[in-house]
Amino acid sequence: MTLRQFLSKQLIDVIQWNEPGDGVLAWRYPMEDMEIQNGGQLTVRESQMAAFVNEGRIADVFGPGLHTLATRNLPLLTDLLHWETGFESPFKSDVYFFSTRLQMDQKWGTATPITLREKEFGAVRLRGYGIYSYRVADPRKFFVQVSGTRESYYVSDLEGQLRETIVARMTDVFAASDVSFLDMAANQAALGQKVAQALQPTFAALGLELDQFVVENISLPDELQKVMDQRIGVSMAGDLGRYTQFQAAQALGTAAANPGGAAGAGVGVGAGVAMGQTMMAAVAPVATVAAAPAAPGAREKFCVGCGTAMPKVAKFCPECGKAQ
After folding, report:
1. Using CA atoms in the order 222, 228, 229, 234, what is the torsion angle rounded to 10 degrees?
2. Which of 85, 147, 257, 263 is the most exposed place for a label (fewest CB within 10 A)?
């Protein structure tokens, strides 16, 4: 290898980055033992941004396009390096690329149920999950607040922080919401929008932009869901008397369909007793009315023999038997 070949390998005249796959948010161009050639080319593709960093301090940021590296295109870096009259020789600097495309299908969910005060049921515990998407919108802020000088930074490195932040904001929104739990299923889109609005400032502080936030499901823990189902069943039954009659009739029909089995016989007896009690309860008011004494006005004459009061149409006294 000649000296010229050795020197040419140490100078970079084209800087570019092809994303190797999904999940990369920031990547540092390898600059070890290398310098950037004056007048070199920086290629920034769509869905990317690039930043020059000198001694840990971020300087110039470039959007998509082909950029020639000169003092006029690197004003902040030129100021940091005190190049008053421009530079002609190669220079040393770190170059970071940032992926600005949407990071889609990111999952969020409550690891444990969250307790809220609900206007209809009092204190309830809710679980929820969904998806969201975001992108790097401000590389300078993202570099300073999140990724720093690491060689690469991935979506997975940020996932836990964002998920816990989402759950905290969701709790605040649900606590302040006037929507009851029973109406949440019909208002999940509106709740998602409220949570997204509450999350926007937090994402922006990290140099991110929240693009979409979706609430896929809001539910109760299993034990509370059983209680809810029972309450809904009672409400749907309406008149408990008719509901009991209906269940008794259903049980009687089941027993009649299986007269040979011991269980069927037991069900039949139980259903018969319940049905009999129900019928007696239904007939009781009528019997009471029939057994009630007649109104005083209905007795209009007295026995000519013993003076016992009797109906006007009676032919004989019910007490002494004397003809009237």
Report:
1. 160
2. 85
In the chain, what are the domain boundaries?
Answer: 3-99, 103-221, 225-285
Name which of 228, 229, 197 is nearest 213 in CA terms. Answer: 197
85-116: per-residue pLDDT in tens?
555 656 778 899 999 999 999 999 988 887 77
Question: Residue 28's closest CA among 9, 52, 10, 59?
Answer: 52
Residues facing residue 257 across a β-bridge: none
Domain 103-221: state its class: alpha beta
How far apart CA 212 and CA 133 sit, in angstroms, is 5
Residue 84 has pLDDT above 90, yes or no: no
Q: What is the pLDDT of residues 44-53, one digit of tens each?
A: 999 999 999 8
H or E segment to which residue 35 belongs? strand 35-44
Q: Token digits for 219?
A: 């539910």
Q: Answer left, alpha or beta for residue 285, where phi above 0 means left and psi between -120 and 50 means alpha.
A: alpha
- Provide the H-helix boundaries in 93-239: 139-142, 155-176, 181-184, 188-205, 222-237
